[in-house]
Amino acid sequence: MAQSDNSNSGTGDNGEEETEGPVIRDHRRIDPETGEAREPEAGEQAPEDQPPEEAEAGADEETVVEDDAEEAPEIPDTPEDLVSEAINADERVIELTNDIKRVQAEYANYRKRVERDRVAVREAATAKVVEELLPILDDVGRAREHDELNGGFKAVGEALEATAAKLGLERYAEQGDEFDPNVHEALTLVPVPNISVQTVIEVFQPGYRIGEKVLRPARVVVGDPQDGEDTEGESAGTAGPEDGQSTGSGDGKADDDK
Q1: Is CATH 2.30.22.10 correct for 169-233?
Q2: How far is CA 249 from CA 39, 144, 226, 241, 244, in A?
Q3: Please, which pLDDT band fits residue 221 given cuts at 50, 70 and 90?
Q4: How remote is the C-alpha of 189 from its chain's centroid?
Q5: What pLDDT, in 10s, does the model give residues 223-250?
Q6: CA-CA distance, 58 to 63, in Å (whole number)?
């Protein structure tokens, strides 16, 4: 025991002098005075209160964080030119979309107009051909009215009328129809009692049309409604002389009695 004490005391005397009191080491990486990062010295070791393994792990983590910070790309600010180009591109897309819609609408209208013109041209050509057949159809109609449509002539006439009907030809104007100046041609106007509107009372020549186009108006005699006041005036005028005659005869009888 004495030897160990002597050896310990000897070591203390021959070795480095131990410093009495707390030892303070500044391990801060940022210099508080200059604000710059400190570089670790070559002989610097980990603090005594931290195990060597934890010190190495902390150093590795700090190295990884610094490497990640160096490798992370910097996100530049979006220049104003790029922003303006993007806005112009959006406006251009909207403009082109509106142009496409307008072209589609114009094409649809063009197709409708072409179809309408095609139908009109077909109807005009058909009407031109059928119009030349109207006198023949009139002869067929007159022969039927006089019971002369017989034999082969009847078959030909009926076939001709059927073909004209397939082409869209329509015959109109019958007795009792209401008079329409757009499709009827009035030859004469006859006062007729007991009617409220002008009415067809006789058909001289039937009319023909294809669709809304009139090929030939119907020639008719029109009955015109009689005015009620005229009828009452005529009846009053007719009854007046009779009353006068009766009055005069009465006066003569009275004179005779006197």
Answers
A1: yes
A2: 160, 61, 35, 12, 8
A3: very high
A4: 51
A5: 999 875 454 444 444 444 444 444 444 4
A6: 9
Q: What is the DSSP string of the chain?
A: -HHHHHHHHHHHHHSPPPPPS-------SB-TTT-PBPPPPTT----TTS-HHHHHHHHHHHHHHHHHHHHSPP-PPPPHHHHHHHHHHHHHHHHHHHHHHHHHHHHHHHHHHHHHHHHHHHHHHHHHHHHTTHHHHHHHHHHHHTT---HHHHHHHHHHHHHHHHTTEEEE--TTPBP-TTTEEEEEEEEESS-SS-EEEEEEE-EEEETTEEEEPEEEEEEEEPPHHHHHHHHHHHHHHHHHHHHHHHHHHHHHH-
- The predicted-structure confidence for 161-208, as pLDDT tens digits, reads as follows 999 999 889 999 998 899 999 999 999 999 998 889 999 999 999 999
Model confidence pLDDT, tens digit, residues 48-106? 455 555 555 555 555 554 555 455 555 555 667 777 777 888 888 999 999 999 999 99
From residue 47, alpha-carbon distances to 2, 71, 197 in Å are 35, 30, 125
> Domain residue spans in the chain?
169-233
Q: Please tell me the distance from the alpha carbon of residue 142 to that of residue 133, in angstroms, as a whole number.
A: 15
